[in-house]
Design brief:
Elements lengths: L2 H18 L4 H16 L4 H11 L6 H14 L3 H12 L5 H17 L2 H18 L4 H11 L2 H4 L4 H10 L4 H30 L9 H26 L5 H19 L5 H34 L2 H12 L3 H18 L2 H18 L4 H15 L7 H10 L3 H24 L1 H11 L1
Helix pairs in contact: 1-2, 2-14, 3-14, 4-10, 4-13, 4-14, 5-6, 5-12, 6-7, 6-8, 6-11, 7-8, 7-19, 8-19, 8-20, 10-17, 10-18, 11-18, 11-20, 11-21, 12-13, 14-17, 15-17, 16-17, 16-18, 16-20, 17-18, 18-20, 20-21
């Protein structure tokens, strides 16, 4: 075995062993990279250089700003208002509260950009409300966790910024635009699944639809929704970079949360900022350690080897696309979202582009695959949060989620094989 092959074995085997031993992902990435560098005889300064290089990016500054914006708006009293708006839109349907849950997640996802935040914030309100109205607790929790993945696709999503940085040269504005239709398609798919189950189980309808109520709730919620408009229009229109728009959105969300909705006082703002620091420390440590891992993969030519191995199995573009999705789904079962994006993008993106998949389209595919991974054991963070919020056993939630897994997989296949769904808005505006 050559020295290069042995170094790859040290890197990947040590990483896999530490993952199975349930090491924190940042430690597993850093330690496996350290062992690989030591085997190659490279100096320790390489580790420091690559960690600093990984987070020394102006565009990466958008990530902490977007997370801060989501924390401020999520704690600023907007959840009730978005739920009321969703109820005015779709609450009249059979299984109305399930539909409200799904549509509210679409609205809230455009503000938080986090499936975990969506589940914790909306789930704590909607799951008890649904149970009180006669919905099963496992169904209510399943709807909540699956619909939370809409927030990963609907801009502004900090995961898309991470992907843009990992892919290199991909427009954040194009990614933002590309997420709207897939997010809506996912919502429609989940609504169809919820409607079928609601009909079968005879779940109740909500209040009758009226334009007056819709306009009333829209007027109340417009301040929250305007934050998304500021970010997306600013980036797409070329008025701001992604980082600048995120900074403007933080100031705007602070004003709305404190002075308009009055869901936060200044003491609460400091508490929220403290929570943001906790989240940001995890994200930035992951990015910096993943930078070392990516450096090892690149210097050992793993991306080209992986591409040759996949293409060696088959030259059928359809099978290769399905194989890419399968790899990402398996990774989603054992790893969290950010490290998958950071580690898998440099390896899988060249394979995807070789069969004609646009980097923007592939970014949306990665995000949705990772979103499904957040709902699958054994490392499904959103699955655990939903189970805790809904006070339902995880096994019961997984069983109730099976029909919604099917809905999500159908959407994933549509995004994979019909690029126009993803590329329509980016091509239109760019």
């Amino acid at each position: 075995m050559s020295a290069e092959s042995m170094a790859i074995l040290v890197l990947l085997a040590s990483f896999g062993i530490m993952i199975m031993l349930r090491f924190p992902i940042a430690y597993a990435v850093a330690l496996s990279s350290l062992l690989c560098l030591l085997y190659q005889g490279l100096p320790f300064t390489t580790i420091c250089q690559q960690m600093v290089k990984g987070i020394n990016s102006f565009s990466l500054m958008a990530v902490p700003f977007f997370i801060t914006m989501g924390c401020l708006m999520g704690s600023g009293g907007i959840s009730d208002k978005l739920i009321a708006l969703a109820n005015a839109c779709v609450g009249w349907m059979t299984g109305g509260m399930a539909m409200v849950n799904i549509v509210a997640s679409y609205f809230f996802g455009g503000i938080s950009g986090s499936a975990a935040a969506d589940t914790a914030s909306l789930g704590s309100i909607l799951i008890p409300m649904m149970v009180d109205q006669g919905y099963d607790d496992d169904f209510s929790t399943a709807v909540t966790i699956t619909s939370s993945c809409e927030g990963l696709l609907v801009p502004p999503s900090h995961n898309m910024v991470i992907y843009a940085m990992s892919a290199g040269g991909v427009s954040v504005g194009s990614l933002f635009l590309a997420g709207y239709i897939p997010g809506a398609l996912l919502a429609i798919s989940l609504m169809i699944g919820s409607y079928i189950i609601s009909k079968k189980r005879n779940y109740p309808k909500g209040d009758k639809f009226t334009f007056k109520n819709l306009l009333k709730q829209l007027s109340v919620s417009v301040w929250a929704l305007a934050a998304v408009i500021i970010v997306v229009v600013g980036v797409v229109g070329g008025w701001f970079t992604a980082t600048e728009s995120a900074a403007v959105a933080v100031i705007y969300s602070l004003i709305v949360s404190v002075y308009i909705y009055k869901g936060l006082d200044w003491k609460g703002v400091w508490r929220v900022l403290g929570d943001c620091v906790d989240t940001l420390s995890i994200v930035l440590i992951l990015i910096s350690t993943s930078s070392i891992f990516g450096y090892c993969l690149t210097t050992l030519h793993v991306p080209s080897m992986a591409a040759n191995a996949v293409i060696g199995l088959t030259n059928n573009p359809i099978l290769i696309a399905l194989l890419l999705n399968l790899i990402l789904l398996v990774l989603g079962c054992i790893m969290d979202m950010a490290p998958i994006i950071l580690i898998a993008t440099p390896i899988l993106l060249p394979i995807a582009t070789s069969i004609g998949i646009n980097p923007i389209q592939f970014g949306i595919m990665i995000v949705l695959n990772c979103g499904i991974g957040l709902l699958t054991p054994p490392v499904g963070a959103v699955l655990f949060i939903g189970s805790a919020v809904g006070k339902v056993k995880m096994e019961k939630v997984v069983k109730a989620t099976l029909p919604f897994y099917l809905c999500m997989l159908i959407v994933l296949l549509l995004l994979t094989f019909i690029p126009e769904i993803t590329m329509l808005l980016p091509n239109l505006f760019y």
